[in-house]
Sequence to fold (874 residues):
Amino acid sequence: MQHGPSSFRREPRPAWVLCLLGLFLGTIPILPAAEPEEAGKLFLAGDYPGCIQMAGKAMADDDSGEEWRLLLAQAFMAVGQYTNAHAVISTNLERYSSSVRLRLLARDVYLLNGRPEEAKGFLTEIYTLWRSRGWAYQDGPNLVAMGRTALLLGNDPKLVLEQFYDRARKRDPAQREPYLASGQLALDKGDYDLAAKTFANGLKKFPDDPDFHFGLAQAYAPSDRKEMLASLNSALEANTNHVGSHLLLADHLIDGEEYPAAEKTLAKALSVNPWQPEAWAYRTVLAHLRNEAKGEAAARATALKFWSRNPAVDHLIGRKLSLKYRFAEGAACQRRALVFDPKYLPARIQLSQDLLRLGEETEGWELAEAVHAEDAYDVSAYNLTTLHENMNRFATLTNRDFVVRLATNEAAIYGEAVLALLQRARDTLTRKYWPDLASPTIVEIFPEPKDFGVRTFGMPGNPGYLGVCFGQVITANSPASQGVHPANWQAVLWHEFCHVVTLQMTRNKMPRWLSEGISVYEEKQENPTWGQEMNPRYREMILGKDFTPLSQLSAAFLAPKTEQHLQFAYYESSLAVEFLVHRFGLESLKSILRDLADGAEINAAIASRTAPMETLEKDFKAFARDRAEKLAPGLKFEKPKVESIAKIQEDMPASALNNFTLLNRQARKLLQAKKWEEAKAPLEKLIRVYPGNTEGENPYELLAGVHRHLGETNLEREVLSRLAARDADTVEVFQRLMDLGSQAADWPAVATNAARYLAVNPLRPQPYRYLAQASEALGRTQDAIRAGQTLLLLDPPDPAAAHYQLARLLHQTGDPGARRHLLQALEEAPRFREGHRLLLAMAGGAGGSSTNAPASARPGSPEGTGRGPTPPAK
Fold:
């Protein structure tokens, strides 16, 4: 017989239940009758003892409402009294024989009481109830319970969203559960944009609800730590005992290597629920990072105390270790989780990504495809399978030490240059730091930023990253993906390969600041134009309030205030490495890395190999301040008052100005007035007193523009050459120098600037055309041929000229391929006279002298096709 609310038949409570209720009701004063809504408010506010008291009194007063039982069990669960929660649930299951909400909660309660088989049975009971009397569960809370059950039984998440959660929201717009369930579903599947939107919509209806603020914080966590922290603050203002928020904050602090603060935050969570499994899982992570094997084992055992085969515990431990680049240890944790539950999808997709980052690709891709086949809504699995399809079209280049994958067209253009650069980096850096690298290193270069994001982070996006290293695998954005501020791909790969060396040397046990600091430092050791330099903004940050103590540098990467602050974190880290090497020597730095490999804590390792941390902090700050104060000592960088800027006159002598801002302001006023001669003085002074100023619209470019306006070509070229020797990314300058060098027949300069251009963007035809010309003029025939062959892969603006020039070069070396290229040139330009002369020469006929025709004899010229001149290629 089924009992609804109107036909409820009370069963006498067992004596032990009455005893249990007495234990927590004994000290409760007599209160007037309350409604479940009042207890629910106490629960949301974090007053779990108050909620227990109110619900317990209502039950003692023989209140028959199901809500009281749900609230009491949930409150017991919130404070870790799992056996009490089990007592409440188990004694009410028969009484509420048609309650799906009670059975869904019973599943969680029984799991945390070590009874997984019985817990699984409740899902079957709920399904049976739905099949027999689904009409009775059409209100919002019951639809949500049914939806959650459907998910646990493996149903399609999108169908659950549409048929249960969306219907629940429409049926009961005033209920919070449908919003929370929809948001949680999006979180579970990695759809963070949808999760953020859902929780934000919920907050419009429930602005003071801590669970919505917490959900929004979770949605922001992968992409916007500042917004995440703001949402966490709101959640904790509404409920200071909100365990989920404390755990997410601890997660954030662990990422930033703020381990003592993370411990304190976990202690707050455990003061609410001393048996919270996730809190103990985080403590397991911290013990592992401290190399405390006994503490790690004890914390994990506590996390599994009530549910000994809980896969979420090892999944969480492994995920956090993987975020610390401990991918092998992380993968081992996921395998342990899958022993507990082979179908646990979060562990399977995390293991897939761990294996891919370890270079164990066959199993990694198979796992991703299997998860996608089982759960088409899992965003990470979908992204990975789509990426795998794209990467199957990549070309692969290999040698003994590297496997390089990149787009087929790009492989043909600069793939060999990538291999050569990586080999040089390996030879240099292994000799300097660590020779025992595992081989091969896998390097994957992506023309699509979204593919780079998926391969690297599991999701598209994360703009701003040029490359990432996982230890034996490097991922990088291709030059094809670069925007208005291109970066030198050679510097990027050198930087990332340095990570390969230091991560393997330390067994991936190094803080981010040290890893990044060494890589930026080594960039500049290889090429002074790579890496970062002190600039006015960094000077201001060091001398102001943005300087980060040495012991806290990793946190500077986690939630930077601005993009500028993130770049400063890289610079300050490299400055810290330079300080350590300058003060204590490279061998001391290498000893620190070896100590980290043995499990030493970073600050202890540094102190043992250098000086006490307190001394180091003080000395490093002095070192950084000295570097900042010595930036352009002839200039003042303090921001002048507004009235001082307004008084700057165009005719004021530059020699009278010694303020960086005022000199720049005067130069720009003169340029705006087109007073070219007068603008020279402030620009020349800026370059003379601060030659390292190459950022943005810098004085070199402005002065070169002045010379160009005045027709002073040699002076323009001299200024741009000085800039090119300091800035590795300025392709516009390299292009102009190639133009000017070609006009002056300065072929060594043309070749140099073509090589500089190709180090930034090897996918444009212009530098290859110039490189072919310069190499031929310098007698480097093979270099000229290679440049000409590559030029033809890039759809040059004048293909006939490119084929003709390559045909001439090949003919000079006796290569039979010359004829094919010549015929292709004549196919493009049938009336090209020089081409016909070369064809006759190849046939042994007249006109053989034309084999040495100048490179400028192009099919677009008057002596060519007769079609009129073709504008020179830009």
Summary: The first strand starts at residue 394 and ends at 398. The chain is about 65% helix and 5% strand. Confidence is low (pLDDT under 50) at residues 1-33, 846-874. The two ends are 87 Å apart (CA to CA).
